Amino acid sequence: MDLSLSTRTVGDRTVVEVGGEIDVYTAPKLREQLVELVNDGSYHLVVDMERVDFLDSTGLGVLVGGLKRVRAHEGSLRLVCNQERILKIFRITGLTKVFPIHTSVDEAVSATD
Amino acid sequence: MATVELRFSALPEHVRTARLVAAAVARRAGVDEAVLDEVRLAVGEACSRAVGLHASNDIAAPVRVLLIEDEKSFSIEVGDGVPGGAGTDAAAGAGLEGAEGGDAEGEDEMGLAVISGLVDDVEVTSGENGGVIRMSWPTAAAPAVP
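^ Those are the sequences you sent over. The predicted structure of the assembly is below.
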């Protein structure tokens, strides 16, 4: 399965819905999308990963890169994920301490801290 | 001899194929269903890393994956063609620092970090002909009958 991406705006947040597999082949697409959003002035991003089937370290690298970009503009990058198989990858790499991870888009969109 | 041997051009689009094949052979070998996700992820990481190493070292040779089933375990060996490439100690302490720089080396280290976090039995070696990441998982007593 390939990567699918769609974006929508909720208040001052931009929600990026990601589906499919994020790996060494597809991660550049996600990187382009995040870079484009930041270049267009969207600094508060919510990446919805509920439809992601597979995530590897290349994908993690892209998310960390996205976080770095929004932080340069005092923005935020929040993740939405309830899938244990995906959460595990964030845990073993210590990235659960780096990203705020929410259980729903609503929660992520209204989070302020 | 390996149960299944796979060679693919060092291109990102083929890593998914390697994941699918590895998971299929692992399942047949009797690796627990609950662990198949780990197998998929670990072999993907090892192959992504090899693809990156081949690209950055301009190596035309394919990436080599051996899937080996024996009585009590299932092993995967992913070999790159870069002498001295895989034999780093990065697996132990790899993590964010490199990755935050967003460079290829950082992703490479994060890949090894994921592998070492996922797989209990992993060995990274390097020789004149290139580096090898070897990973093993226990299998159920009786392998699936065809």
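The helical segments of chain A are 27-39, 57-71, 84-92, 105-110. Chain A touches chain B through 20 residues (CB under 8 Å).

Shout if you want it in another format.
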